[in-house]
Amino acid sequence: MLVHCAEAKELSAGKLAQAMGRDKGKITRFIDRLEAGGFVRRVSDPRDHRLLIIKPTVRGQRAVPTLKRTFARVREEFLSGIQSDDLNRLGSVLSALHENAGRLYKGKALGHLPSLKRSAREI
Fold first, then answer.
1. Do 87 and 65 lie in a common domain?
2. What is the pTM of this model?
């Protein structure tokens, strides 16, 4: 999250939540912790004073290169030995699962499959 804030020129909590695919409430609580630690600060949006922009402090800016190196090293070790074709397939499968889960969560998928509803009651 700190890296997103440092790389974006102007980022509100809502835009940050959207960019990260997270709940705005959770993002706000995490921003609270980053702010308490001196890594970010909230400033008024000059175009709309009702909005707050999340800006990294000097301490936050200094932490970003270390975070990036750490993330890169962890990603490299985590994905070690996995071929890029396999990673691409995994990405496709995870995207499809995410879309399916979204439809299930909204109740759309089960509405088209009444036999699944019946069998769930029978179990």
1. no
2. 0.66
